[in-house]
Design goal:
With 195 residues, the protein is α/β, with parallel strands linked by helices. Helix content is 43%, strand content 11%. The chain has one domain (3-187): Rossmann fold (3-Layer(aba) Sandwich). It has helices at residues 3-22, 34-47, 77-92, 110-119, 132-135, 139-145, 173-179, 183-187, and strands spanning 68-73, 96-101, 124-128, 148-152. Helix 3 links the parallel strand 1 (68-73) and strand 2. The longest helix has 20 residues, at 3-22. The two termini are 32 Å apart.
């Protein structure tokens, strides 16, 4: 897969992640200190349904239909939300998402999940909430297969041709209030997360 193709697929997946992140709001309320109240106001603004997609640069061509994205799906409710977001977005471009289960409290389930994902020969493998240290040992296999990895909510991750985008990162209320963070800005090709 060429460098341009990896980047294009990474950007397509970032757009898919934008849809996924937009679908994962909460309806909880916050109370407490002035800082918490300021943060809550910023969070309330961010929880509103999006009316547009902030990524406006058109793709150079229509995404190739029939591609597969493997989603490593854990047992917690957030993983189900992320999976559904990926599926909805993938359907819009004619792609499909295959869920591969793993158990967050049992790291021994990761190796079979990553191998099952590679067996699908997907354009990408996405997952959330897994520290880099747990999955970085699989990078050479993905690099050899030409499959990109799209981590989200994972903390600091070095970007590479195999990890061309980070779908979303750890964000807390105070950081959002201070930076006026928007989901669309966090889903574009970024950043080594340090928060």
């Amino acid at each position: 897969m060429s460098h341009l193709s990896r980047r294009l697929n990474g950007f397509i997946l970032a757009a898919l992640c934008l849809a996924m992140v937009a679908a994962c709001g909460t309806s909880g309320s916050h109370s407490g200190s002035n800082e918490q109240k300021a943060s809550s106001a910023a969070v309330s603004e961010l929880e509103k349904d999006p009316t547009s997609i902030p990524i406006t640069t058109p793709l150079p061509s229509k995404p190739e239909p029939g591609r597969t994205v493997a989603f490593l799906k854990c047992e917690v409710p957030q993983c189900a939300q992320q999976s559904q977001g990926f599926k909805t977005a993938a359907e819009a471009v004619g792609w499909n998402v295959v869920d591969i289960p793993f158990v967050t409290t049992d790291p021994a389930t990761l190796a079979p999940a990553f191998r099952q994902a590679l067996d699908l020969k997907p354009v990408a493998v996405a997952f959330g909430g897994m520290p880099y240290e747990l999955w970085s040992k699989y990078l050479p296999e993905f690099e050899k297969a030409g499959t990109i990895i799209v981590p989200n909510y994972v903390g600091p991750v070095p970007e590479s041709d195999t990890v061309p985008v980070i779908a979303a990162g750890p964000v807390n209320d105070a950081a959002m209030a201070k930076s006026r963070w928007r989901a669309g800005l966090r889903t574009t090709r970024t950043t080594r997360h340090t928060s």
